[in-house]
Structure formats: C-alpha cells, structure tokens
C-alpha cells in the first residue's frame, strides 16, 4: 500500500533512468493491424518503423506491465474496471480508482472526470495524477539477427509462423499466418521513472515487479500459443537528481548488467530510497 495521500506535494526530486535489452526467447508478434497487410504477406504482420524494421512500441510494453500489475493486485473485478472504449467488439477495460494511494494509477497516471464502471456506479474522479513511468519505443538491435538466422528466415529479419484453427464439428481447417520477430532477436529498452515526492521511491519496486512478472508471462499476440516469451538482460539503472538538471551534477549509477530479479532486489533493499536523493 502506498503512503501517498491527497495532501502529498509533488515536486521533482529526480529521475530513475532504466536501460537494457529485451531478448526474444521465442518468436515475438506485436501486430501492425490490417492497414499494413501486403499481397502475398502474412495475415498478421508485425509493426515496423519507417525503415521497415520491427520494434516494440512503448505503449504495448507499458500496457502489458500495467495489466500484469493489475492482476497481481487483484483489481480486475468489474467493480474496479472502467471503460476506455465501449465500441462493440472493441471494448477496452482498465483499472482505475480515485484513491490517492492507488499505486497502479500513480505509476501509470489517471485523468479526472466521469468514467463508466464495468459494474456499479460511474466514477467521478477528482484526482489528476501525472504518470511517473515513461516507456519508450524499443528499436531492434540489427546485430542480433545473425547471418545464420537470416538464412532460415522467411523475410530479411522476420519469420512467418503458420497456424491452423480446426472447426470442432466439421474438422475443417482454417489456416492463418503470423509474422514474428525470431527467437534470439534483441530490442533496446529505455524507461524513465519520475520521482515527484518521497513516496514515489517505492514505485520503482512495482516497476521491477512488473518486469519480473513479464518474464514468466508473454508480450504481444499469440502468447498462449507459444509466442512472446521474453527476458530482460543487461539492465542499467542510473539516478539523476534535481541537481543533474539544474547544476550539471553527475548521475549516480545504481546497477549495471542486471536482470529483472536483481533490479527487484535492489529496489526492495533497505537503503534504496536513500540513494534517490
């Protein structure tokens, strides 16, 4: 439970910079939508940048971390969920409350105003909470796609996975194809946590918890069918206090070459908060 209250004063103390690598343990599919479908291509292409290279959108990674933490906190009952969109077939439901100590809303932000609950009366939110966590788009490390991998790929840097959906009554097969970034690929991560009050320092541990959960879950589409297993590696955490920006002070390196478990151990250690000053 967070120590934040409605009277907590927000003023920048500093920023925690987290950089590292996201390794694909299995093929990764983060869809581009039907708008980029090409003749002769996969039914479900991956999202690519303007140079045609796959990347992990910051919104996809951030949303997955939020969903994992929501489930961990047990705040996915209909009474805790609100609608972001109610378009038929495109409903989007997320957790949101007006509690000042709600760590999910503190880390990922929330807007004031009226929001419809999935069950129960609407929320009349009065607390506008700036998001502490920023997740940037993660570009592909092209060096991770080796010459040996390229020889076996369907495209220069992606593979196509064929799947079959079988009708349970007629046994008719409905084939589909899924474009994936291959196992062995690496993406370059960058996240920033704004610490706006002393109470915010505990939110770094929640981010580390979400990253740890992600390694035993999946990212992107097709997770229950084998895609999207990832691992965090070579994480570097650095603290840039207020004087870094105001007076040109040096940053403090808190961890280097770490994994998600080591980052969590650091963020939950007794002396961690004192290092963020």
Could you walk me through the main structural features you see in this protein, from its secondary elements to its overall organization?
The protein has 277 residues and is an alpha+beta fold. Helix 4 packs antiparallel against helix 6. It has a five-stranded antiparallel sheet with strand order 7-11-1-12-13. The protein has seven helices and 13 strands. The protein is globular, with a radius of gyration of 21 Å. It has one domain (14-275). The model has no long low-confidence stretch (mean pLDDT 92). The relative contact order is 0.23.
Summary keywords:
single chain, 277 residues, alpha+beta, five-stranded antiparallel β-sheet, two-stranded antiparallel ribbon
Question: Can you give me a brief rundown of this structure?
Answer:
This protein is α+β, with helices and mostly antiparallel strands and 277 residues long. 21% of the residues lie in helices and 28% in strands. The strands form five sheets. It has a five-stranded antiparallel beta sheet. The protein has a two-stranded antiparallel sheet with strand order 2-8. Strands 3-4 form a two-stranded antiparallel sheet.
Secondary-structure blueprint:
Layout: E1 14-24, E2 55-56, H1 58-73, E3 81-85, E4 92-95, H2 103-108, E5 113-115, E6 123-125, E7 133-135, E8 138-139, H3 147-151, E9 159-166, E10 173-180, E11 186-195, H4 203-215, E12 230-241, H5 242-246, E13 252-258, H6 260-267, H7 272-275
């Amino acid at each position: 439970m967070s120590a934040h209250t409605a009277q907590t004063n927000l003023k920048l103390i500093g920023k925690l910079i987290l950089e590292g690598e996201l390794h694909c343990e299995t093929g990764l599919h983060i869809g581009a939508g039907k708008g980029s479908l090409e003749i002769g291509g996969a039914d479900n292409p991956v999202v690519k940048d303007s140079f045609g290279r796959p990347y992990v959108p910051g919104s996809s990674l951030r949303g997955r971390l939020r969903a994992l933490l929501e489930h961990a906190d047990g705040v996915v009952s209909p009474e805790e969920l609100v609608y972001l969109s109610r378009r038929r077939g495109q409903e989007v439901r997320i957790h949101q409350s007006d509690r000042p100590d709600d760590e999910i809303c503190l880390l990922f932000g929330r807007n004031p105003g009226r929001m419809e609950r999935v069950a129960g009366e609407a929320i009349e939110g009065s607390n506008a909470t700036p998001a502490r966590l920023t997740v940037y788009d993660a570009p592909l490390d092209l060096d991770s796609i080796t010459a040996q991998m390229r020889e076996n790929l369907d495209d220069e840097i992606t593979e196509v996975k064929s799947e079959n959906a079988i009708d349970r009554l007629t046994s008719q097969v409905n084939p589909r194809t899924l474009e994936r970034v291959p196992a062995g690929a690496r993406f370059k991560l960058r996240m920033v946590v704004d610490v706006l009050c002393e109470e915010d320092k505990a939110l770094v541990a929640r981010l580390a918890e979400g990253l740890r959960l992600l390694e035993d879950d999946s990212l992107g589409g097709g997770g229950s069918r084998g895609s999207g297993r990832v691992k965090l590696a070579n994480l570097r955490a650095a603290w840039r206090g207020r004087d870094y920006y105001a007076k040109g002070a040096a940053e403090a390196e808190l961890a280097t070459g770490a994994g998600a478990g080591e980052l969590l151990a650091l963020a939950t250690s007794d002396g961690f908060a004192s290092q963020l000053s």
